[in-house]
Amino acid sequence: MNEIRTVTLELLRHGSPHNQLLSPLTEYLALCGNYPAVTVRLPFEHQQLVVRLNAMSYQDSQDTRRLQLVDTARLLAQVLSEVPGLIAELSDSTGTGPPLTHLRLIQSASELALVPFELAVGPEGFPGAGQPLVLQSQSPLCVTREMRSSVPPNFQWPREPRILFAAAAPPGFDPVPLEAHLLALRRAIDPWVEKQADGRARAKEIKEHLRVIPRATVGSILDACRAEKITHLHILAHGARVPGRDESYGLVLHKDGDPGAVDIIDGSRLSPVFRTYQDRGSFTLFSPTVVTIAACEGANQGSVLGAGSSSVAHALHTAGIPLVVASQFPLSYAGSVLLTEVLYDGLWRTKDPRMLLNDLRWQLKARFPDTHDWASLVAYAALPADLSEQFEELRVTRAYDQFVTAMSYLSRVTGSLLGSPVLAAAEARKRRRQATKMLQTAVKRFRELLEDTPLENADQRATLYELLGMADKWYAKILYSREAPDQRPQAAQPGRIRSLLTTARHHYSLSSRIGPGTSYAVVQELALAAVLEGADVATKQWWSDKWVMARVRGENALDHPLGSVGRSLLDFGEELSDLLELYLLGLLLPAPSQHAHFLELAKENGRRLVRDYADQFPDLLEGTRDQLGHYTDWYNIYNPTLQRLAQPAQELIDLLST
Hints:
The model is unreliable at about 415-425 and about 485-490 (pLDDT under 50). Helix 4 packs parallel to helix 9, helix 12 runs antiparallel to helix 13 and helix 17 packs antiparallel against helix 18. The strands form 4 sheets. The chain has a 6-stranded mixed beta sheet with strand order 7-6-8-14-15-16, with helices on both faces. It has helices spanning about 45-55, 60-80, 85-90, 180-190, 200-205, 220-225, 265-275, 310-320, 335-350, 355-365, 375, 385-415, 425-450, 460-480, 495-515, 520-535, 540-560, 570-585, 590-615, 620-635, 635-640, 645-655; strands spanning about 5-10, 30, 40, 100-105, 140-145, 165, 210-215, 230-235, 240, 245-255, 260-265, 275, 285, 290-295, 325, 375-380. By secondary structure, it is of the alpha/beta class. The radius of gyration is 29 Å and the shape is elongated.
C-alpha cells in the first residue's frame, strides 16, 4: 500500500501566541525539513486581510469576491515561495512519488489562523504552478493546520467507532439540513448495522454506532460524551458572532432548560464539553478522535486579542482533539452534506483522513463552482506518525466486522424464512437478496484489501486469505441450509456449493503457506478436504502430515509462557480452540487405538476454555461451539462419511455449554 509523504512547514514568532496583529513588519521564522531557516513576512496589514475575508464571506458582490480570491491566492503564493526548503520538499521531478503529500502547517501564533493558506496557488517551482495547491493533480496535496504540542503524537485510532450527531436550529434561525446529514451518516454505518424487522431492535442496533441529538444543548452534548466513548462527533448548526465579542464566532445551539432560546457557544466553552471525564471507568480524560463542524465560520479565528480568542475549531484542537474539520467561511447547505457523505463514508471504512480531505476539496470544487467551499475547508490535525500502519490493520478489522454483520443477517434471514407460512415468497426473496448483497459487498472489500496489500506484507495477506476462506465456507453453508432437510444431500445448487467449498479450501491453503499465522487455517484446510473428498482423505500421506504439523505447531505455541513473543491470553485461547477441532479431526486418522486419546485431549482443551475464558471471552466459546456445529448439522449431512464425528462434536459442544 502506497505511503503518504509528509512535509512539515513551521511558522514561528517570538512572544505570546495572542495579542498580535498581522503586519508586514512582523517576522516569522519558517522551518521546513533539514533546510536552513528563513524569515518570512506577510504582505498585508491586519485590517487589509479582514476586508479580504469579509469579501470571502459573501458580504460583497460576486465580482469582488472572485477578485479577492484570486488576489489573496497570489499573495499567499508569494509567501510560500520565500521558503526554498518547501519548494524542494514538494517537488517531485520523477513523477513517481506517493499518491499524496501531506503538508503539515504548524503554527505558534494565533493571528496566522486568520490566513487562508488553503487558498494559495502554487508559485513557480511548485507542483502545478499557477493552480490552487490543494486542487492541482500533478502532485496531490493535503494541507492541514496544527498547533505545536496540541495532541500527544502516539495515540491509537479507535477500533470501534461511534458517532454522536448533534444538530441545532433554534427559533429565529433558518432550518438546518438535518435529514440530509442523518441520511449520509446512516448510509456510512449501514454495512455494519444488521437489518432488524422490529423497530425497537433496529433502533437499538443503530444506536450502537450512531446517537442523534436533534435539539442539541451544551448539557445534552456533555451528558452524551460522559455516558459513552464517542469517537466521532458531527455538529450541524449555524455559526454566529458571540454577543459582546463582535470579532469572535461561535456555534448556535439551543439553551439548556429553554430549548426555544438561543445559546451561542465559543470554543473556550466547548473544549471542556468534548474533552471530559467519563461517568464510568477510569478517572481519565476522554475526547473524540474526530470532530466535524458543519457550520458557517466554524474555523473563523475572528479576533486575535486575548488568550481566549480563537475559532471553535482552533480551540478544540488546542484542547487535545486530534482531527477537527470545519469551515473558515460560510458553508453552503449542499457543501455541508457532501462533507458529511465523503468524510464519514471513508472514515467508517478506515480510509486515511488526508486522502478523504483531498478528495473532498476536489468534489466541492467540481460540484459547487459558484462557491469557494473547497477553500473554506480547514482541517486541524495532529496525527500519529504510524497512522498508515495503524490503518492497514484497522482496515482488515473493520472489513471483518462488516462481514460478520452480513453473515449474521444472512443466517437469520435464511433461518427465519425456511418453511415460513407468514412471509410471502416475494418478501422472502427480497430479504435474501438484501442479505446476499451485504455479504457480497463485504467479500468484495476483502478482495480489494488483498489487491492493495503488498506481497512483502505476508502476515496481512495471510489474514485476508483466511477471511476469504471463512466467507466462502459460511456462504456455502447458508446456500445448503436453504434446502429442505430431505433434499439437502441432493441440494439444488450442488455445483455452486462445491465450488465455494473448494475455493475456501484453496484460500485456507494459501493463508497457511504465505504467513506464519495460527493453526486455524491449516485446521480448516484439513476439515474442508475431508468434506470434499470424504473421511478416507485422512489415509493420504499429505493429510496426516499436515495434521501432525498443525498439532506440533499448536502444542508448541501453548508451551510458550503467557506474554512471550507478544502472545496474549486471547491468543492462547484461540490456539486451544484450534487444537480442539484438530483433535476431533484426528478421529479420522487410521489409528483407532489413538482415537480415545485424541477425544480426551479435545475435552481437556474444552475444559480449559470453560475454566479460563467463559467469563472474560464468552465470544471465543460461542465461536468454538459454532465451529463444532458444522460437524453436527452440515458436514455430516453433506458428506455422510463424516457422520462418525457428529457424536464426539456434540459431546464437545455440550461440554462448552456448561
